[in-house]
Design brief:
single chain, 4 helices
Length: 141
């Protein structure tokens, strides 16, 4: 189970970092062009593709067994950390109270984002485990 938890921590860190970059692009580039809902609809497949690649590589890198328990632990830990990090950023950067943060989930963009976060949590259950083709400079190899 230890490998699954380490993989979950790494999964959170990689996808959260990508999410910060994409979220910034969404806020400053996509939202003015497409509106809040359109921006989330454009961003969501990109972050889920990044999450799928990260989940697949981390499952392989840390040899997370294909059993339900370890894979669910990886996804659940990553999801929990993601929700806590999002709450922390909402409070620290936007000056929201925790209650005000949770209230944002009544909006369609936040609901779409939450659906994406649930998919992110489930991805480790569905990715295959096997050898990764050797690539020079691959940080997850």
């Amino acid at each position: 189970m230890g490998r699954a938890l380490i993989a979950g921590l790494a999964y959170f860190a990689l996808v959260f970092a990508a999410g910060v970059v994409l979220g910034t692009l969404r806020a400053f580039v996509l939202t003015p062009a497409f509106g809040h809902v359109g921006a989330v609809i454009v961003e969501l497949p990109v972050i889920l593709a990044i999450a799928a690649i990260a989940a697949r590589r981390l499952v392989r890198r840390f040899a997370v067994p294909p059993a339900l328990g370890p894979r669910a632990a990886m996804g659940t830990l990553a999801f929990g950390l993601l929700i806590l990090a999002e709450l922390g950023l909402s409070v620290a950067l936007f000056g929201r109270t925790p209650g005000a943060h949770w209230a944002t989930y009544t909006t369609l963009p936040a609901q779409l984002g939450l659906a994406g976060q649930v998919a992110f949590a489930l991805l480790p259950l569905f990715v295959a485990r096997g050898p990764i083709p050797s690539r020079t400079g691959d940080p997850l190899r």
